[in-house]
Amino acid sequence: MLFTDYGWRASYVGQLKTAIYQTNSVATIIDLQHDAPVFNPRAASYLLASLINFVSTDAVVLAIVDPGVGNLARRPLVMKADGRWYVGPDNGLFNVIAKQAEQLAFWEIDWQPEQLTKTFHGRDLFAPVAAMLEMGESPEMTNLSTDEINFLDWPLELAEVIYIDDFSNALTGLRGDRVSTDMRIRLGERDVGFAETFSAVGEGEGFWYSNANGLVEIAVNQGQAALAYNLKIGDPVHMYLP
Amino acid sequence: MLFTDYGWRASYVGQLKTAIYQTNSVATIIDLQHDAPVFNPRAASYLLASLINFVSTDAVVLAIVDPGVGNLARRPLVMKADGRWYVGPDNGLFNVIAKQAEQLAFWEIDWQPEQLTKTFHGRDLFAPVAAMLEMGESPEMTNLSTDEINFLDWPLELAEVIYIDDFSNALTGLRGDRVSTDMRIRLGERDVGFAETFSAVGEGEGFWYSNANGLVEIAVNQGQAALAYNLKIGDPVHMYLP
Amino acid sequence: MLFTDYGWRASYVGQLKTAIYQTNSVATIIDLQHDAPVFNPRAASYLLASLINFVSTDAVVLAIVDPGVGNLARRPLVMKADGRWYVGPDNGLFNVIAKQAEQLAFWEIDWQPEQLTKTFHGRDLFAPVAAMLEMGESPEMTNLSTDEINFLDWPLELAEVIYIDDFSNALTGLRGDRVSTDMRIRLGERDVGFAETFSAVGEGEGFWYSNANGLVEIAVNQGQAALAYNLKIGDPVHMYLP
Known about the structure:
The structure is a homotrimer.
Chain A: E1 2-4, H1 12-23, E2 31-33, H2 41-51, E3 60-64, E4 76-81, E5 84-89, H3 95-100, E6 104-109, H4 121-134, E7 141-144, E8 158-164, E9 170-175, E10 184-187, E11 190-192, E12 206-210, E13 215-220, H5 225-228, E14 238-240
Helix pairs in contact in A: 1-4
């Protein structure tokens, strides 16, 4: 199960898969998403958490989002949470899942490949480790305590736009089942109310709904919400009771 | 075999595959196309029909194109046509294939998943049903007669642009083997004649040809036909004998 | 292992895979890259060569890049180089790999499918041949001597931009391990020096580095090199010792 910010262009995803198959030639690889919020592990963390309930409970999730600032060589991390394995950098990407988990453990990866480039740890380090874990093998790694993990202070929900999809819908880091459907979202000088589905509002009308992964999402029926309301990833989302 | 309008961005295709593997962990999934004409099951129906002859005769085809208007919750449909299974909404998407089929049957899906969201029937309902059919299992469903199916009055060919590819070639819903190569296509104030291949005309010259799937396609050698002739999906295509 | 210029849109890649599975229903297909430089087998040849060391040594590589000019129906070629099979048109695409190979042989494909369209040899001819080779079967083909192969005079390195990725990094056809890190690259009126990684230079600063596949790559830390320096595929790359 792959979740990255690599994009579908170029050969980055292809090389990741090549590396996985080199270790485990019978791996089943699912591309969950390859346009996770670039340079934004925080937004990506809420997005990944919203997808994980639909993933097999014994899956190995290889997730990589470049933090974009500072040293790229974050501590390489393995997390086990409620049966699923997670492999990736210790930059906060797994933290929303971690906070919701009932069973949780962390390890730092000690295993080293024969050749480790400075700029493609996904292919050289994380992919083989994920492939080993899927085969039931255990790469060399050292147990970490929870308080050694970065960014575990992030809140369970994020009142921000965390992703904008191809239909120009804006996903937020808020959970739809934790807010009243009486609430509205202020978007600059306009605001939108709740609707259960697209067809419940008129053509061109904006609304928010609880999407198929449980997140509050801002949309326009047959329109383009992010364009219409000038929304981008990171914008704050103000919900209020009128 | 997946044919959708989900696009490659976001996690929609990834979640579809996750749901298929949850039911059938050894499924072989082929992404046939994920940029079927958005909000246009009619154009998509001609496109899908042009691709189907190259698909294995025992394939399960999971096809989803959002009609964009009215209630999204169209009757969930299973069609069996000449050995292949088709799973998707009853919005016309399978109708061109149905009209060409020698053996044909329809069912309404009665099976229900434990959790059915309002906005992602592809993942929650259609994907598990397709996975069951590929395993040889039969989900609960009720036979439908042909006259209960929507839009079966669509013609066998469509004189419209049905798709524009990345090379800016414009595919039409017309069959190349049913028109004379003496015919020309009027495109605004210009028109183009037939050529067998790209290299048969000069650089920058427009022409039409019968593409590798049998459809009349408008192209420009080393150029961009849809841009040059200002073509978009749904534009009428006028063929005439000069 | 697929390497093409088909793009992810439309059904071209999907049809290629469908054709492979028709011949070999248990094939393992990896999408290495589908946005190889369009109409540019020369640039693509250096790109493919940079990726090949990470590919399994018994892989079958199906590679297609349209030359864009002249007759599309180039001689269909099979190459075996250091254990790996390569299938595609004889347009130079495999030549950088050929020049580096210790064991090398070429064949012209004589095998013909029942139905061969004029415009989709990838699906009709190359895909089944690649699938047969992966199964250990041998399609009909005739040995060729090396001096019958097109474009084997291309140099081992190319001082040009050969690809621009989604992050606007510009890859060149030069090998990082064959140039001194004291060298600079002139880019119009500006120039950039070497840095080991992105984080070694300031935000917005340009540099060149040896990328994870060994190529000299021009980048800007948290910026967009190709945009900033107005680079496109085919632009010459001037390295010099200041």
